[in-house]
Specification:
four-stranded antiparallel sheet, alpha/beta, single chain, 39% helix, 334 residues
Length: 334
């Protein structure tokens, strides 16, 4: 039984450094800072960040060793989220996305026994994003696409995004949604709250926009995967259900909110066995897949232990969570 990690990030070495100054005058992207002691630190969005070793982001050989340590057979690689660049002009973002996607394809092609890879696209221009995804899947052989949980603050039910979702559904590839540039960021600067609260909050906003905005009804073939166990969306499902029953804004929703959540997929990164068990109980264990968030410190370095701590699951459900469901979604022969 292959163990497949569907939530892990990489910054292809051939793409480094990749930084840009946004319209707000701030630096975005990723570079490597060489310290006086000889060590390396990632410079993320213009700031030195010690939430992982710099070489963990790009060193494939170290990655393979640490995959072995975690007993992970195959990673489905996502570009680091610092490469979204949605706030840049679309043409510039598209050029960067193409560079990243070519590099991602090269890494996966060099070790098809250990890697698959997903694309990034300029989602601020949905038509251009659709064209880049067509190229990434059809020409480069990538196996899906990673997107941010919002597009410069725009939710996924915005009509302008329909051409992108049409292309995703036609290509029949997974969409891995990862939060970044999260809601309420101006209130989350201290205590790492932008990640501790902002990430799971923004994922829930994204899921709610897909549900209540009719996107999942319009595109029933979408294969949407949400990081961090769907954030706080699963715990809010009772409130969403009540809101459908009593609020006129949501009276026309064709199905109960929980039925939509059962069509989505999620990773195992909840950092709490009770939370993960609740997720499995709400949406079904068949919708949950192993993730590590490698190489970042908010990840799970022992994902098999996380799954083993769950009780009451069948052997088939455990096998699905460890890798069989991911193999089906990403068309991986195991």
């Amino acid at each position: 039984m292959a163990v497949i990690d569907i939530h892990c990030h990489i910054a292809p070495e051939s793409c480094l450094p990749m930084e840009a100054v946004g319209p707000d005058g701030k630096t975005y992207g990723l570079s490597v800072h060489h310290e006086d002691c000889g060590a390396q630190c990632p410079v993320i969005n213009g700031r030195i960040n010690r939430n992982c070793d710099a070489d963990q982001l790009y060193d494939v050989e170290r990655r393979l060793r640490e995959m072995d340590d975690a007993r992970v057979d195959l990673q489905v690689l996502s570009p680091v989220t610092f490469f979204f660049f949605y706030n840049l002009p679309a043409e510039e973002c598209a050029a960067r996305a193409r560079q990243v996607n070519v590099a991602m394809a090269e890494i996966a092609a060099a070790r098809p026994d250990r890697f698959r890879a997903m694309a990034t696209v300029p989602l601020q221009d949905p038509e251009r994003a659709a064209a880049e995804l067509d190229h990434a899947v059809g020409e480069l052989g990538l196996h899906g696409v990673e997107v941010c949980s919002n597009v410069n603050g725009m939710n996924f039910d915005d009509p302008s995004l329909r051409p992108f979702f049409e292309t995703v559904e036609r290509l029949d590839v997974p969409v891995f949604v990862h939060p970044s540039h999260v809601a309420a960021a101006d209130r989350l600067h201290r205590h790492y709250l932008e990640n501790l609260i902002g990430n799971p909050l923004d994922s829930a906003i994204c899921i709610a926009s897909l549900v209540f905005g009719g996107v999942l009804d319009a595109f029933p073939g979408l294969k949407m995967i949400f990081s961090h166990g769907g954030g706080v969306a699963p715990i809010l499902i009772g409130r969403w259900t009540h809101g459908k029953a009593v609020r006129p804004e949501n009276a026309d929703l064709p199905r109960a909110p929980i039925e939509y959540l059962k069509t989505l997929h999620y990773d195992t990164i909840t950092h709490d066995t009770r939370a993960l068990a609740y997720l499995c109980d709400q949406v079904g264990a068949s919708q949950v897949m192993l993730g590590t968030d490698y190489p970042f410190d908010m990840g799970d370095t022992d994902p098999l232990a996380t799954i083993s701590a769950l009780s009451g699951l069948s052997d088939d459900e455990i096998a699905g969570m460890r890798g069989n469901t991911a193999a089906r979604l990403y068309d991986i022969k195991i």
